[in-house]
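Think of the structure tokens as a kind of shorthand, similar to the way a musician reads notation: each symbol stands for something richer, in this case the local conformation of the backbone. In the example below we present two proteins back to back. Begin with the first one, reading the sequence and then the tokens, and try to describe in your own words what changes along the chain.
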Amino acid sequence: MSIEQPPRSAFPYYLISSSLWMAGMSLQGFLFSWLLVGVLERPADEAGFARSLAEFPPLFILLLGGFLGDRFDGRSYLSVMHLLMTLPPLLIAVVFFQDLLSYWWVVVFGILMASVQALSDPARQSMLSRVALLDVQRAVTTMTIFTSLIGTLGFYLGGHLDEIGLGNVLLIQAALFFIGIFAVRRLPALPMQHTTKPKLADGFRALKKLPLVRNVVALNFLSSLFNAGAYIVAIPYIVKEVYGGDAAFFAEVMIIFTVGSIGSNVILLLFMPLRHPGRLFLLMQLSRVAILALLWVKPSLWLFYLAMFAWGLNMGVTTTMVRTTVQELAPAPVRAQILSVLLLSFLVSSPISSVLLGVLISQTAPLTALLPGIIVSLAIFAIGIRFTGLWSYRSG
């Protein structure tokens, strides 16, 4: 049976909607951290606990998102998700204008945003293979470049929080999600690809038959615990307590990191399709050891910026290699559910690392939270070469 090709306009509209979504979520990542650290001035253990609380409910919602993403028309489903995502910023804007903003309202904000994100992400990512005329590696990388580039708009807005005002920034955030609906509605219809309706456990059943995908997801979980976790939890405190920075400085650091991530994907795109993406993923673990070690010794400001740029380069490569490998190997009928399991590996690790690293920072110092990432990166490299098959994996 021949597969109908998507119209050429499908991928650009997909990129527009995804980029606006990323801008809103980048702003969310900034706001959640800075409201706790810079505005409410909560200690690291409380901030870590708040992040853990905010990201725990979506763990249960994510698999449902994969299930629904495989079951409904993708265009209609994403339209609803964009509309739902406008509501939490509007709610918190009202709370702020009423002068009621508190620790628990920030937690509620995080829970609502992360929950809708969990519902939408599997469907959005699984749609990529259906709207792009490129191979999977180039499609994933191109999307990462565009969405990350537009996503820096969120950090820029966060950096000007004091001038624009928190209430206005929240209204802009809601507008970013709302405008994305118009791009989603220009996509072609993307009906369910099953001959029968999917079941909630289909993704896990498929993983039993895909050992390499299981191994990639497991290594991604391990990496997210203390590498991505260190970036999310430790960097706001390193910015504020080690370098004495404010919201604008925090935004600059996040932009520099994101520019590094974008740069790595631009470079990857020049060499794609890669024959052995697993090898690159594993070698990046060794370079991360050097980056985290440099950050740990509290370098001068220009070296700190350079290390954050390099960390962005590193994380851009590893994240793209994970996503392209899973996208390539996941069967189309259950792709959204398998991707939901991959995303689950991110989400499960986040509340765990938030609590552990938050307590570690409170008991020691912000820079100490970088040390577990060094050990974990070495472990991933050793385990990946010896036991997973990633080193010998050859992309199709």
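Once you have a description of the first chain, move to the second and do the same.
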Amino acid sequence: MERKILIGFSSHRVETLSWAEKFMQESQVIFLEEPENEILQRFLRDEISLEKYLKMKEFQFPVFAEKMAKIVKDLYQKGKEVLAVEPYLERVGRIYQLLEEGKEPSEILTHQELRKVYEIERKVTGALLDFYQASLGSDFKVLLEKVKIFSKFDAERFRLRDRLRAKAIIKMLPPSGKVYVEAGTIHLFLKKYLRAKLKNTWTVRSKYLLEDFVKGEKGRRWIYPPGELLTLRYIFKVKENEEIENLLSARSLIYILLIEKEERIPTEDNPFPHLREELQIIQKLNSFSLLDCSFIYPKLRFREREVALKIFENYYLDKFRKETS
């Protein structure tokens, strides 16, 4: 009796969709990485139109959302079971709803299932505000400490989020068959938890949806940006190493200033516009020392992205010439 779970590690980008569709087509049950919501089910059941569905929800990446909705609807109509499962974000939504209703934090903390989520969100939000405040100053060492503090709290959040989602998925698994689980690339703890809990009953494997391209370019399944590497160290409780963590924190500060945050559409000439550029930036950043980062960061912040990219590229080329001459 076949019992296979495939976790598709990806991002909400159009360039991933053809691969996501392929693996979802091969599965009987599809777990989407979003909170359970009746709006999605009404759309799947043809009770509301695509246009109304997209208007009723807020999407960070609207082109991706529209194309993904069409794919999922088609699969649903072909008999696939489509389930939105993300308990942590559901609880965050309930917390915001209670706050909007005028409930005090002390009252929210009386809800057992909301307490831990509320406490983590408060810590993460506080750490993020501290980071933003520090980023206005000129002390690079202080800023690095703020990055590390935020990443530690964020790691705690990811551990709880993945644990809650894994438990929910396990409860909803069919007796047998092929199952597809949509997940962001940083959710490696989800895979670890599912494998531990389903040992000897289900085969749990994973695939980075664009790993074939990355293998062709870099010879590895996936290459993580520095900020995610830092957070993953904390998620899996790797022995702390100040030198490594400071360097990853410094590189992450540069990286977030350089990456494209707007949605890009693949073309025939460039089918992976986000990933291709990110791999190039990561490769160059991996040659940067802590001193390099501390020198160039003040020159990049508060700049338009295109200007920051030019400054970064010029610094990298100058650095490369000096090291190879």
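Compare your description with these statements about the second chain. The chain has two domains: 3-87+159-218, 224-325.
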